[in-house]
## 1
Amino acid sequence: MTDRSISAKSKGLARCHSCHRLNSHNPLSGHAKCSRCQAPLHFRTHNSIEQSWALVIASLIVFIPANTLPIMTIKYFGSGTPDTILSGIVVLIQLGMAPVAVIVFIASFLVPLCKIFGLIILLITVNGRSNMPPKQRTVMYRVVEFLGKWSMLDVFVVAIMGAVVNLGFITSIEPGPGAAAFGLMVVLTMFAAHSFDPRLIWDLKHND
Amino acid sequence: MVTYSTINEPDLAKLVACPECDLLLEKKPLHAGEVSKCPRCRCVIMSRKKDSVDRTIAVSIAGLISFFPAIYLPLLGLEAAGLRNEASLIECILTILNSKLYFVAVLVILFCLIVPFLRLSIALYLMILVKRDQASRYGLKLFRHFLEWEEWGMLEVFMLGMIVSLYKILGLADAIFGYGFFAFSMLLLSATLVSAFVDEQLVWEHLSNDR
């Protein structure tokens, strides 16, 4: 059945990215709009691959300060050592909170890395030189999309801890610049996943 | 499977393309509670929900009621050596601003305040339009943003952040739950249910008179 399947694009039809209405679309006619909701019309996301690559590379670069700069400093009686994301996880384990440490490790370290490398794999395989079945790659795209926001966890933890843990001289928490770098990285990976158009995965199959 | 060689405008309304693999399909009429999926990549194409409009109105009002207690009442606190301190969502943002981490403050304000508030308000407004069967160009634009902003509403991530913080606080001192924590839980529940109850197809069809 896959061999006989027809894409909307091959019939000159573009699906509106926002309201799903099909429109007949002539790419030469300039800036077309959806007949129902007025969203700009494209067969595929404009410059999807280039934009996605640019954002993935940017997020890989920001991944470095996000993990090396301190995200917060816990102070007891006026002194304390700054913690990065990874050293914060070590502290959690030392406090005997392994389950929480696992959640933070997954959300703050594994998920962003998997997202970045997942997108790189999708971007490399999209030109068709891969044996990875399109269905499997679509599932991969869905996972990357779904994971998106969850890496924001540590940024919110820093915001909450900074305000709650504040007993003056006894103990307080000072948020650090790593939180900003980390937040930026998460936003960049979300935009990168957003600019990747999953329909490109299936386009080569139509051309066969 | 579609076998048209030429497709004219009236037929377009009967067709639909899969959002994730662009397979061209004929629209199937759905009964309430039914979901149609792409035969090739299993992506959800359309779903018809039960009592979508009334349910969405109910939960969006509930969400808007719990919004202000959720951000102004204290969420969490700690107690040690006879001292105690509690903080609300607004105080969290002020602390971040005091630390000069403006970008982080913007992220929290956008993802935990503005986006959830706007989505609840838009949902309520649009459902009233749908109930009155009023077509609205402006409503269509709002609904587009409502859908696009879904992934930028991060109340559930903030909730997990509070739970992780709670464990971290327990490592330092005694922890306190504030009333804000319960209001925030209500807000999160309402925002999640709004996303679950809104029937996309129904809203597009009613607001545009395109059925």
Note: Chain B touches chain A through 74 residues (CB under 8 Å).
## 2
Amino acid sequence: MRKVVGLILLLVLVASLVSGVLLIHPFGHPDASDMDDYIIENAQEETGSNNVVAAVLFDYRGLDTLGEATILFTAVMGVLLLVRTLKRKEESS
Amino acid sequence: MLSKIVRTVANQLILFIIVFGLYVITHGHITPGGGFQGGAVIVSGVVMLLVAFSSQELKKSLRERVLSIMESTGALIFAILAFAGIGTAFFYNFLVGTPIFGRIPATGPGPGDIWTGGVIPLMNFAVGLKVIAGLSAVVLAIALFSSGEEVEE
């Protein structure tokens, strides 16, 4: 029973993902510029920022910047943990 | 530790480097730049101090605990600002139109006004704080480790 339900859920997930891929905005295509046009037209009015790149980074794609900050946080944490562990290992040996 | 000439020049230059980095951070919503770039500029100054003086000398003024607290504070401010606009959407710019950083510039190229951008300058500050503290901590920890010194808690 659980396997059947899992299979059905998997099929639904695969179907939705495939349909999403098929319906996706043409990626990197020079003709598909409606998103760029919208941001260039409205960024200054909507965010008040003269630097449209900053407006995209911190407003329209803020989630991306949050991920970037998290990557930095994790990297710093990893380096500090690694350096301390190596130090302790050296002492004990 | 390098010679006295190098140390004196580094001592004079660090002020200008910090001022330029703060300029890049605070004007992130007007001119090219922002929190990441300005923070990297200031950390390059820290690296210069690390080369001119020894890591043991720098350890006395840059405590790793303080740097960790600074970095966490930056991350916290960033997340709080992101959640503050959740009434409309995550990362909604709720300060546009209010007296704080709320002026709206004319569409098109312009000289820019520091009181614009809504939450963008505040987020630049938070990210700048985070980058300065985080990268300084990493550089200092690696330098202390390679010199065989005890890494401060």
Note: The two ends of chain B are 24 Å apart (CA to CA).
